[in-house]
């Protein structure tokens, strides 16, 4: 199972050379195994993923959206443009079975917000709005979900195949006492990708913004016993020097903990 980071920023893309070490694009992570490809969120990094796709055996892409904030969907049309007509695409959410997923996504990528081409592309997409906390199979993967605390709602996901697993938990406001549902989802995962947008002091000043801290991510990793912890959803104002300093603190909170870098490949 190969996990690749295509965008690790939160909120909006970070521009400028002093941000290039950890990268510029917003949230997008691919998970591939055999002919299966999952795309976890489709922020601006999804445009890079589309440009790099060279897998002639690719038949079906599963896009899993944690929620619909711009930094998690802005790259979606460019991903779709990059996929051949022969590739089936299913877009999943786990924010409630009654969420009008197709209507929401299509409206965002229709005039006047987007040229009509994207709406035409979206017409061939299959949409699956799952219930909060749902489990489902996609391709050869088992997917589990749990709702997390974030303005407007968001979901965390666990993907599992052949005894290997990763948890993608971003845009969630947690403390150093992680919620039981999240601990259950994360139990024994080989890799935890977790929102680390704020320091503990910053989080105090941004209550209700729906983001997490190095300390909360480490607490979940310890409680759930994960193999590897990687911080994600970097503040677009935090340049490389700032993130390197935070990464050193993070590694002191959990052995081997690091912050995600755009382009990074993690093999499980
Ligand atoms: Zn976000
Ligand atoms: Zn968000």
Notes on the structure:
This protein is an alpha/beta fold and about 270 residues long. The chain has a single domain (about 1-15, about 25-265), classed as Metallo-beta-lactamase, Chain A (4-Layer Sandwich), CATH 3.60.15.10. It is built from nine helices and 14 strands. The chain has helices at about 45-50, 70-75, 75-80, 100-110, 115-120, 180-185, 200-205, 215-225, 240-255; strands at about 1-5, 30-35, 35-40, 60-65, 90-95, 125-130, 135-140, 140-150, 155-160, 165-170, 190-195, 230, 260, 265. The strands form two sheets. The chain has a seven-stranded mixed beta sheet with strand order 6-5-4-3-2-1-14. It has a seven-stranded mixed beta sheet with strand order 7-8-9-10-11-12-13. α6 crosses α8 (about 215-225). The protein is globular and about 50 Å long. One zinc ion binds near residues 10, 71, 72, 171 and 233.
Order of helices and strands: EEEHEHHEHHEEEEEHEHHEHEE
Give the CA-based shape: globular
| Small molecules bound in the structure, each named once | zinc ion
Percent helix, as a range, is 25-40%
State the helix count.
9
End-to-end Cα distance: 5 Å
CATH C-level class is Alpha Beta
Percent range for β-strand residues: 25-35%
Give the tally of β-strands.
Answer: 14
Features:
alpha/beta; Metallo-beta-lactamase, Chain A; seven-stranded mixed β-sheet; 27% strand; binds zinc ion
């Amino acid at each position: 199972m190969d996990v690749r980071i295509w965008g690790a920023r939160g909120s909006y893309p970070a521009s400028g050379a002093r941000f290039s070490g950890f990268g510029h694009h917003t949230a997008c992570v691919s998970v591939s195994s055999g002919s299966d490809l999952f795309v976890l969120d489709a922020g601006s990094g999804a445009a890079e993923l589309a440009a790099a796709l060279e897998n002639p055996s690719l038949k079906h892409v599963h896009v899993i959206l944690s929620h619909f904030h711009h930094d998690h969907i802005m790259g979606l049309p460019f991903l779709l443009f990059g996929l051949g007509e022969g590739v089936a695409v299913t877009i999943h959410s786990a924010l409630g079975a009654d969420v009008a997923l197709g209507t929401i996504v299509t409206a965002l990528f229709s005039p006047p917000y987007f040229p009509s081409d994207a709406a035409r592309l979206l017409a061939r997409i299959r949409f699956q709005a799952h219930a909060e906390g749902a489990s489902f199979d996609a391709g050869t993967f088992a997917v589990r979900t749990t709702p997390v605390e974030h303005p407007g709602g968001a979901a965390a996901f666990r993907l599992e195949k052949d005894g290997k697993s990763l948890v993608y938990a971003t845009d969630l406001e947690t403390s150093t006492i992680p919620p039981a549902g999240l601990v259950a989802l994360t139990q024994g995962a080989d890799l935890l990708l977790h929102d680390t947008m704020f320091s503990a002091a910053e989080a105090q000043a941004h209550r209700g913004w729906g983001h997490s801290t190095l300390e909360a991510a480490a607490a979940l990793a310890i409680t759930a016993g994960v193999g590897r912890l990687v911080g994600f959803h970097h503040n677009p104002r935090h340049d490389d020097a700032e993130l390197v300093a935070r990464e050193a603190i993070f590694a002191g909170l959990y052995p081997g903990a690091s912050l995600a870098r755009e382009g990074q490949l993690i093999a499980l």
